[in-house]
Amino acid sequence: MKKVMVMGVGAQGSTVAKRLQEEPNVEEIICADYDLKAAQHLEKTLSKAKAVQVNAKNVADIVKAAEGCELIVNGLAPDFNMNVMDAALEVKACYQDLASGPVSDLGFIEAVERQLGRDQQFKDAGLAALTNTGSAPGVANILTREACDKFDTVDTITIAVYDGIWSKKFIPFWWSPETAFADMAAEPVVFENSKFKRVPPFNNPEMMDFVGLGERLMYDHEHEEPVTMGLLADKYLKGVKNVYFRYGGPGCDLAKYFYDMGLLSDKPIDIDGQQVVPMRMISKLTPPAPKYEDEIKAVIEEGMYMEEGAFLVRVEGKKDGASLRIDSYAGGPGLQEAFEKAGITHESYFTGQAAFLFTKMFVNDKMALNGVFPPEAFTKEMRAYYLKEAAKLDITVDEIIEKRLY
Fold it and tell me: Digits of tens for pLDDT over the chain (406 positions)?
């Protein structure tokens, strides 16, 4: 029987904790958060849960809470990753997080390299440290590797996520608006011609054609996949030369307008003698994403106009001398279906359930690797297990293969 600590029980962490409640191999779930009230809410509703207040800035505090745990699931912001990793090593626990960056003290590439730099320490301890678990990154990485294994050489990987929901209540983002605006104002990293480079925010606007949806406007977006896949191109991804992450949707369009107006700047401006930081003002004025069940229900009951989305992993390269393209579309429940199934949003369902499936692999002894690694490092057997379990949660994958025969 295993003891697991979920560090940070927000939208995704709480989803992982709730699903762990159903796992026979889990004896106790330590729900740790600086916000004790959030942790106590889970303790009241889950029989295996125990709430503890933890200051993640203090490694000793994490170690104390995690004593006896075999796995720490880190649902905190990436700024805390190294503290939680160090705590995991100290208590001899495996480690899982949902994202590698951005962080406040390093560039995106350096943040990923710093995590991978702990590889030998985890190997020496016989422990696994799995980074970047969720939908994207996470499911996207597994689908990428699954496709790459069918090529002789890979030229380009494009991960494209489109998210569109229109409701009577104004909800531009279904996660933290502050995080959303910060991500969109950042200069994305792309891996191009086997080199990393920074590009401007909202770079390379392009209409992409999605099966069943049609053409939608997409932009380069800051994300982990170009970084981890670029660093591991030769090891796992058939020497891929180019990796892009593309994002689009009404929230993205809104952020683009704000960016063009200078409203995503973190530099103060003078307004009638008052110093105002535009980014803070916009983040403050943007309605937060519904978090609790009654809030989500209220949005749905007030009225939905339309919801649509696409999650595409496109891999292009060569097989037996011919050009090959594989499009993998991942699908999951929309907002209304996710709420009916689990009382959560589509965002929490896809990302949180996907993250849980990685946790499930740990608690059921299916994590067959040691060291520090993202999901693209998974073996064929590990990927097969993950995708089979995902289908049980209505997270499915459709693959389209196009091969030029001459």
Answer: 689 999 999 888 999 999 999 999 999 999 999 999 989 999 999 999 999 999 999 999 999 999 999 999 999 999 999 999 999 999 999 999 999 988 989 999 999 999 999 999 999 999 999 999 999 999 999 999 999 999 999 999 999 999 999 999 999 999 889 889 999 999 999 999 999 999 999 999 999 999 999 999 999 999 999 999 999 999 999 999 999 999 999 999 999 999 999 999 999 999 999 999 999 999 999 999 887 889 999 999 999 899 999 999 999 999 999 999 999 999 999 999 999 988 889 988 899 999 999 999 999 999 999 999 999 999 999 999 999 999 999 999 999 998 876 6
Q: How many residues does the structure list for the chain?
A: 406
Alpha-carbon distance of 210 to 216, in angstroms, equals: 8
The residues that bridge with 316 in the sheet, in sequence order, are 156, 325
Asked whether the domain spanning 135-343+394-403 has the same topology as the one spanning 2-130, the reply is no
Q: Could you tell me if 173 and 299 are in contact, meaning their C-beta atoms sit under 8 angstroms apart?
A: no
CA nearest neighbour of 16 among 74, 91, 86: 74
Note the pTM of the prediction, 2 decimals.
0.94
Domain 135-343+394-403 has CATH 3.30.360.10: yes
Architecture per CATH, 2-130 = 3-Layer(aba) Sandwich (3.40)
**For tokens 């060291």, what's the residue?**
371
* Whole-angstrom Cα Rg for the chain: 21
Range 121-152 burial, b when 16+ CB lie within 10 A, else e? ebeebebbbbbbbbbbbbbbbbbbbbbbeebe
| Nearest-angstrom CA–CA distance, 104 and 92 | 27
Domain assignments of the chain as residue spans, ordered by start: 2-130, 135-343+394-403
Beta carbons of 233 and 251 less than 8 angstroms apart: no
Strands 214-220 and 396-403: unpaired
* Phi (first) and psi of residue 201, to 5 degrees: -55, 145
